[in-house]
Amino acid sequence: MALQWEQIVVDAQDAGRLARWWAEALGGWVIVTDQPDEVEIRKSPDQLPGLLFTPVPEAKTVKNRLHIDLRPDDQEAEVERLIDMGARHADVGQGGDVTWVVLADPEGNEFCVLSSRKAD
């Protein structure tokens, strides 16, 4: 049996807006599908996995059970860039002595910005 990871699906009140935000946040990912019922982004059109944003009427209400971890070259600069783009700090009970920063995208989906590899 062959199996390939195709995408992660993200519920969004404004799928197009959130997909564009993540495409920019991830450093130039591209929109490969832009339909009223789904917007998909990928690193390049032929590279999987992608992120598929689907519209839902309700707002996010609880902590995500699955989230994305990002590993930057410069954690402090990346956190600042993402906050300037509209992310905000999020508290998911991580405590004060951790090496990652928890942020939330414009619709409240949590994700982590890990420490820089060169700092590990």
TrEMBL record:
Any coiled-coil regions, as ranges: none
Task: Supply the Pfam families for this chain.
Answer: Glyoxalase_6
Return the PROSITE patterns for the record.
VOC
**Chain ranges of the VOC domain:** 4-116
Under PANTHER family, the record lists: CONSERVED PROTEIN, HYPOTHETICAL FUSION PROTEIN
Name the chain's protein. VOC domain-containing protein
Organism, scientific name = Paractinoplanes atraurantiacus
